[in-house]
Amino acid sequence: MHTVMFVNLPVADIERSRKFFSEPGYTFNEKFSGESAVTLVLGNDRYAMLLQRDAFDALHPLETADASKIKECVVCLGVESRDAVDALVDRAIAAGGAPGDSEDLGFMYGRSYSDPDGHAWQIFWMDPAAADE
């Protein structure tokens, strides 16, 4: 159905966002980045377009939510292991992210953090055998 995904998120400072997401190990697609946007690579053909707030506001006439005060969405991303969950979230928190909730259901494990703009990121692992059942 869909061939590519871009999640657009407003940010106050492009360079601050670039620095923050670099520290946990994310990379950027410079082809889709510029003065008012940086494109965070989430996987094959999956991206978060971090847009300077005024550029984000221009996308749609509705008022833009302040993610530090109102939860507008939670970006959920799967990783290959429980250890990968902990490693990525620990690096994000060390880079200045705010710790969020955690959940351990045995077959599924997740932790979350908020970036400097307040966007919620849920990192999770699910046991592939349990998912097949």
How would you portray this structure in words?
- By secondary structure, the protein is an alpha/beta fold.
- The chain folds into two domains: 1-61, 2,3-Dihydroxybiphenyl 1,2-Dioxygenase, domain 1 (Roll), CATH 3.10.180.10; 73-133, 2,3-Dihydroxybiphenyl 1,2-Dioxygenase, domain 1 (Roll).
- Helix content is 24%, strand content 35%.
- It is built from four helices and seven strands.
- The chain has helices at 14-22, 53-57, 82-94, 128-132, and strands at residues 5-11, 37-43, 46-52, 74-78, 98-104, 108-114, 120-126.
- The strands form two sheets. The protein has a four-stranded mixed β-sheet with strand order 4-7-6-5.
- It is globular and about 45 Å long.
- The two termini are 25 Å apart.
- The mean pLDDT is 94.
- It holds the Pfam family Ble-like_N.
- Residues 1-126 form the VOC domain.
- InterPro entries: Glyas_Bleomycin-R_OHBP_Dase, Glyoxy/Ble-like_N, VOC_core.
Could you list some keywords that capture this structure?
133 residues; alpha/beta; 2,3-Dihydroxybiphenyl 1,2-Dioxygenase, domain 1; 3-stranded mixed β-sheet; 24% helix; globular; VOC_core
